[in-house]
Amino acid sequence: MNLDFSDPALQILNEKLADGERLSFEDGLALYQSPDLIGVGRLADISRRRRHGRKAYYIVNQHLNYTNICMNQCRFCAYARKASETDAYTMSLQQTEDWVRSHPEKEVREIHIVGGLNPALSMDYYLDLLRTVKRSRPEATIKAFTAVEIDRLSVTSGKSIQEVIALLKEAGLGMLPGGGAEIMNDRIHDELFPRKIDYRRWLEIVEAVHASGLKTNATMLYGHIETIEERIEHLLRLRTLQDKTGGFVAFIPLAFHSKNTRLSHLPPTTAADDLRTIAVSRLILDSIPHIKAYWVMIGEKLAQVGLSFGADDLDGTIVEEKISHTAGATSAKGLTRDEMVRLITTAGFQPVERDSFYNPVNSSAETGAFSK
Ligand code: V47
Ligand code: SF4
After folding, report:
1. Are the C-beta atoms of residues 88 and 69 closer than 8 Å to each other?
2. Is the pLDDT of residue 1 over 80?
3. How far, CA to CA in Å, does 153 sit from each of 118, 143, 146?
């Protein structure tokens, strides 16, 4: 199909995609360097509509940030605290139960648990946390921890990665969120998060998680000191693992927020970069089914536009998000189900309420009709 791109490089990519060919590192560069942003978006939209038509997914979920004490002290993080700081906290099991029970919706589909790497917390805390949340919200999938926590639990407990995963699963873990890899590159690792596991270890642990039967998401933290080449390298590393395991469900590009971090001199990402990164992710990650336009990081309004640039999911209602809001994100702290539905329908898409694995769940709120 000739779509009349103003950039001839996009016409070539369009033909390649129509022939079912995979995009290469150089193709990724061409997408990032193209002056035709709308053209890049159209390519991603074709790919998105081939997979998902007019559907756009959302989930009724809740975030639980159980501790902000963290031994890693990544330079891009505004959330982490030392145990001695006055606003450091760790939630008791009773507090996590009260928090999870406080959600205004009757049926919550997912509890997303992330926190710092607090050296005072033992394996028993993690297991009890999972059991408490599962007991309080049996209908919800618990999406919790990353390869970073699994590595740490293996070191502190003396158990193998496989044993740690088995124990977490038994206690109620349903899948893993995508964080922890940031940008899979040694230069960025050494400059921004030297105390965290490197990408080789991250990939090794995620492969073991997939082998255990658990699904995970994947993310990319962009818009700090990384180059375009390093972003594409990151995407291709994810694609290689996905070819091997098929265990990634969704990919989430995370726009960096610099306020209150040690990189506070860096400007925010631009709307053009956010949209282009969603589109390039959709096109390069051909084997990962879902791409999120994460409204928390890029704002509700741009996330709506992201649905026409390759994304098919807006993530969820969340209730209260702490990591990016501590770093200056100006989006709402949470949204209602009705607000999610309105964002999707007014963008021209059909809202589908989902569970963590993208199975549709019934909701009376969805008509699929376009309305303002
Ligand atoms: O790994 C930390 C990022 C991640 C900042 O799987 C920051 O569905 C921006 O992984 N500015 C944790 N980002 C969050 C995460 C996530 C979020 C939403 C959905 C899913 C999913 C996963 O947050 C960290 C790091 O990359 N982060 N600091 C910051 N200042
Ligand atoms: Fe700790 Fe995560 Fe913040 Fe790094 S990003 S300092 S691991 S809480």
Report:
1. yes
2. no
3. 11, 17, 11
